[in-house]
Design a protein that fits this description.
The chain has 106 residues and is an all-alpha fold. The chain contains six helices and no strands.
């Protein structure tokens, strides 16, 4: 049996995003736009910003609660309701304060 015969007997594999996008030579870089939305969303500062939320959280070695405070403050009004983001930041800050007050690790 040849390799070609064997390959024809195999079930067809599901195409990945790269299989679909790679052949689009000369087209806009759809994949990098998609990755940028995943890894460096503009509402968190974007990849070019030294103040992108994740960079600040990592640099300051913030825990989950304080990291979320920074995240929600940094994106307030850029991805939906500013008031909602600020309420979320306040919730995480209050959660951290309560855990410190009651000596409960989070």
């Amino acid at each position: 049996m040849t390799n070609e015969e064997w390959a024809e007997m195999q079930p067809s594999r599901t195409k990945t995003l790269l299989d679909i996008i790679e052949p689009l030579e000369g087209e806009p870089d759809i994949l990098s736009d998609l990755v940028d939305h995943v890894h460096h969303p503009r509402h968190y500062g974007g990849s070019d910003s030294p103040y992108e939320a994740i960079k600040v959280i990592d640099a300051w070695k913030l825990d989950f609660a304080l990291g979320n405070v920074v995240k929600y403050i940094s994106r307030a009004g850029k991805k939906g309701s500013e008031l909602e983001d600020l309420k979320k930041a306040a919730w995480y800050l209050n959660h951290k304060i309560e855990s410190l007050t009651n000596d409960i690790p989070i």
